[in-house]
């Protein structure tokens, strides 16, 4: 499997893949690779932590979740299934920008605007911690620090703690 990791890195490592064209890549399944992403966003290979942040960022850039609910690392010629415990990425910070627009920073360094394209939802298995929906079927769970910052940004709208990002609104409470 180490060869598979090297092959993936060689295929996509020399390109600028801030936003690779995953929607254009549909290779056949190459197999399973022993990569696991835990709930706290830590990436493991063969039971050991992947310590190279650049490698984690590279792999995160080619990760997608498909209609079968499985997660895959995808290149133009290979597709490897990996294990994700809950959500593959983590929101590490949330800030207010112009507009005011909320900006979420992920554990990969990527920053995204919270809006209809990247909406929030609540994760019921973790006590309704927010989750940011991402491209390619991915999602990012809020870290404790980012969650507390988001709560501090909430306004009371119609009796519910609500965050506002431009025209997008999201209640931080489940509507049971």
Describe the structure.
This protein is an alpha+beta fold. It contains 3 helices and 15 strands. The protein has a 6-stranded mixed β-sheet with strand order 3-2-1-6-5-4. It starts with a helix and ends in a 5-residue tail after the last strand.
Q: Please report the total strand number as a whole number.
A: 15
H and E string: HEEEHEEEEEEEEEHEEE
The parts where pLDDT drops under 50 for at least 5 residues are 12-17
Biggest beta sheet summary = 6 strands, mixed
Shape: elongated
Helix content: 10-25%
- Which structural class is indicated by helix and strand composition? alpha+beta
Oligomer state of the chains in this structure: single chain
Radius of gyration: 17 Å
Ends distance: 45 Å
Strand order of the largest sheet: 3-2-1-6-5-4
């Amino acid at each position: 499997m180490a060869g598979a990791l090297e092959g993936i890195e060689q295929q996509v490592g020399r390109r600028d893949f801030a936003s690779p064209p995953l929607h254009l890549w549909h290779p056949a399944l190459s197999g399973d690779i022993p990569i696991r992403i835990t709930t706290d966003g830590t990436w493991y290979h063969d039971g050991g932590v992947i310590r190279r942040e650049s490698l984690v960022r590279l792999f995160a850039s080619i990760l997608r979740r498909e209609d079968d609910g499985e997660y895959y690392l995808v290149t133009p010629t290979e597709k490897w299934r990996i294990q994700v415990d809950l959500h593959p990425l983590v929101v590490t910070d949330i800030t207010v920008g112009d507009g005011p627009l909320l900006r979420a920073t992920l554990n990969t360094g990527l920053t995204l605007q919270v809006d209809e394209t990247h909406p929030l939802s609540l994760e019921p298995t973790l006590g309704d911690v927010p989750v940011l929906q991402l491209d390619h079927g991915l999602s990012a769970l809020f870290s404790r620090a980012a969650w507390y910052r988001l709560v501090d940004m909430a306004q009371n709208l119609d009796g519910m703690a609500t965050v506002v990002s431009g025209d997008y609104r999201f209640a931080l409470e489940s509507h049971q």
